[in-house]
Amino acid sequence: MKDSALRRLNRRAFIKQTALVSGGIALLPATLASCDDDTENPAYSGDFGFREGVASFDPSADGVIIWTRYTTATNEPAPAAITWEVADDSRFSVVKATGTLPATPDTDFTVWVNVTGLAANQKYYYRFLNAQTKLLP
User: What is the CB neighbour count within 10 angstroms for residue 115?
Assistant: First the structure.
């Protein structure tokens, strides 16, 4: 088997195949490096995120107030767009309520919303997200 494969591969075919592979390897880094040139969102830097945590308070028969404070990245423009979501389950497969709020320097980057239209005696999950927040699978 080895001898027949070696006999079929002559010097001219070997050089041709080597040139093709080498050219592909030489072009590969340029192709990979240019894949991410068109991104609209810059990679934010610094210690940013929801560092103060979240809170819920003042529950009523059909709603609750949810709150958080967002720490902006060093290169993030203000205001930061913060999305909030309320769902029936921890995977957020069915979102019951959602919206987007601006986190501005005027409010010390705190956001809160009075979520209404919820059912009484029901367990809900809520979260806050921004453009750079990574969701867990």
Answer: 23
What tens digit of pLDDT does each residue of 99-120 get? 999 999 999 999 999 999 999 9
Please give the model's pTM, rounded to 2 decimal places.
0.63
Q: Is the pLDDT of residue 27 over 50?
A: no
SS3 string of the chain? CHHHHHHHCCHHHHHHHHHHHHHHHHHHHHHHHCCCCCCCCCCCCCCCECCCCEEEECCCCCEEEEEEECECCCCCCCCEEEEEEEECCCCCCCEEEEEEEEECHHHCCEEEEEEECCCCCCCCEEEEECCCCCCCC
